[in-house]
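Collaborator request, handled under Task 6.
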Amino acid sequence: MASRGVLYGMGNPLLDISATVGQDFLQRYDLKPDNAILADDKHQSLYSDLIKNFPVDYIAGGATQNTIRVAQWLIGTPGATTYTGCIGKDEFGKQLTQKAEGDGVKVNYMIHDSTPTGTCAVLITGKNRSMVANLSAANCYAMEHIDKSENWAYVESAKVIYIGGFFLTVSPETIVKVGAHCADTDKIFSMNLSAPFLCQFFKEPMMKAFPFVDYIFGNESEAAAFAKEQNLGTENLEEVALKMASLPKANSKRSRVVVITQGKDNTIVAKDGKVKQFPIVPVDEDKILDTNGAGDAFVGGFLSQLSLGKSLEDCVRCGMYAASVIIQHSGCTFPEKPDFK
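C-alpha cells returned to the collaborator:
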C-alpha cells in the first residue's frame, strides 16, 4: 500500500482534444497523418474548428502527466501521486483538473491569469495520429510557485520525484532546486531525455540537472543524441548506457540507473558497471491501436513499482506491461483496473 503523495511529477500539462477526422481536415491545416508538431499561426483556428465540427474526447495529457496518470492507475491508492505544472484560468484548465483528478492524481497546478491552458489536438485518421501542441500556459511555470511553503510541502512528502525533459525548456532552475533537495535528503530523483532536440539544444540545462539524476529514461534515438552531444565516443547503446551511468553524481549513496527502451527490441538497463537486456513481450499487430504514449506509459509502470519499493526487475516488467496496455487503447487511456501481478 503506497502512502499519499509518494510519487511527485512535474512537467507541461496539456488538455488533449481528440477526434477522428478526414484527410481533408489534415490538408486544410497542412498536417501529416502521423506527426507531432508545435502549433504555429496557421493552426490557431484548428482547435475551435475541431470542437465545433467533430465529437471530441478530452483527456489529461502532456508526457509527464501521462506518466503520472499511468503510475497512479497501477499504484491504485487515491492521491498516491501528485502532479505540478502551469495551466490557465479558463474552461480548459477546469477540464484538465477534472480529468486528472478523475484518474486519482492530486494536481497542484500553478494557475496563470492571462495565458490559456495548453492544448494538444489529436487528429485520428485510421491508425495514424497527427498531434498539434499549443503549450500556452504550460510554458509559463515559474519557480515562485514551488517556493511557496504549501507547494513545496508536496515535494518534501514525496519519496520518488520525476521530471520530464521537456520541462528543461520551461523552468530549468526549478529542476535543479528539486534535484538538489533529493540529493540532500537521499530521495529518488528521475528524469527523461524526452527528445533528441533537448539533448542537442538544451544540453547545458540538462547537464546542470544530470548530477542529481538517480534514474534516467530515454529511447534509442534520444540516447544516441545524448552520446553524440556529450562526446561519449561510442554508438553502442550498451556502452552509452554504462557511460551515462558513470557520469558525475551528487548523491553517492545511490547508483545511477540508465534505462533505454527500443520499441519492439530489448530494453537496456545499466547499473553499477553492468548491463542487462530485457526482452519485451510482443503484442499482436492487430491488437495495436495507437503506439503514441507507449514511452510515457513505460516510465509510469516503472515508477509505480519503484514507489512501492519493488525490485529493478519488477519495475522493468511493469513498465513493459503498462506500455503493452496503452498501445491497445486510443490515446493515453487504460481500463478501469490493471491486472499486473
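The cover message to the collaborator said: "Residues 7-13+61-117+135-326 form a domain with the UDP-N-acetylmuramoyl-L-alanine:D-glutamate ligase fold (CATH 3.40.1190.20). The first helix runs from residue 23 to 28. Please let us know whether this matches your experimental observations."
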